[in-house]
Design a protein that fits this description.
The protein is an alpha/beta fold. It is built from nine helices and eight strands. An eight-stranded parallel sheet has the order 3-2-1-8-7-6-5-4, covered by helices on one side. Helix 2 links the parallel strand 2 and strand 3. Helix 8 packs parallel to helix 9. The radius of gyration is 17 Å and the shape is globular. The chain starts with a strand and ends with a helix.
Length: 252
Amino acid sequence: MKIKISFYEEFPTKENLQKLKLIDFPCDLFAACQSIKEYWSLKKQLELAHPKVTVQFWPVLKASEGYWMSPFSDFKALKRTISEITKEKNKMRIVWDVELPRKKLLMLTNLNSFLKSKNLIDEFVRSSKQEILITENPVFLSIVGELFGVYFSPKKYYAHKTVMYYSSLIPTKMLREGVVEDIKSLHAHLGKRLSVGLGTIAQGVEKRPKTLTSQELHSDLSTMKTVGIEEVIIFRLGGLNTNYTKVLRNFI
């Protein structure tokens, strides 16, 4: 079985996007942008230069607004982003990253708008005509996560789900095996509507320094192939090098 290899890029700078030169196979690139206008500008530029790459939308907010798309983020910012996506007539895949705010103080200051924001996100996920990839941290595969609005039960929502299995950030073998078991259960229920985030091969906004070796990436890809996962999304493009690329070619 072949696996579709896609990438996240949280910082779509010229330096990071140059790594697209290492990709000679069809892939999706989920680029973090703060607006649809920014996304379309980047998409036209990159797809012209790299015909094998399809740029998809990863909406993020300002840090002061919550950055990620949880009910604890600023209500007006969430509404603005959802409105932009709803008005968009062109089909695209959208990463809906449902993590708690980077600035945890927002969980207190935005508490008064929590239910309003939760209902807004809920309606968006249920009714959007776009392909929404609900991207979740495996820590929140629980009732608590659902209460906080950062976990969407596959029994209640017909949506694509991406589990962030960043094994470089999971401290023990037992915990990693536990996440893999969760992925197996979800795959049995969702099938093609489940993808898995792998990594990290470069630091993200939270700057956790440990990254995968090429051998560890090979091991994680082999595990996902055994489970039957058809698409993995690697975090992130900026860390790609020739050693990682050699590993990827074994699976595409």
